[in-house]
Specification:
With about 80 residues, the chain is mainly alpha-helical. The chain has helices at about 5-25, 25-50, 55-80.
Length: about 80
């Protein structure tokens, strides 16, 4: 295979990859938002438990709140289209 053919094949492959990444941008950001909300709210609940000694209720409430916020953001991204 000649070098020119390899370069054209690589260029077409990279263009196809870039197109797929652009199409999946909103879905991937929504999923990262879901994970981030769960981790952040769970962490805040854990910190509240450590501070006030209410184990495990702050963590449970924080995780539930993180799930609600995360799924809300995910639903907004999915139904926006």
């Amino acid at each position: 295979m000649a070098d020119d053919e390899r370069l054209r094949l690589l260029e077409r492959s990279l263009e196809a990859f870039q197109e797929q990444v652009q199409k999946s941008g909103s879905a991937s950001s929504a999923s990262y938002g879901l994970i981030g909300a769960i981790l952040l709210m769970g962490g805040l609940g854990y910190a509240f438990d450590w501070w006030r000694g209410t184990t495990p209720w702050g963590l449970v409430v924080g995780l539930l709140f993180g799930l609600i916020v995360g799924f809300y953001e995910l639903a907004k991204a999915v139904w926006k289209k």
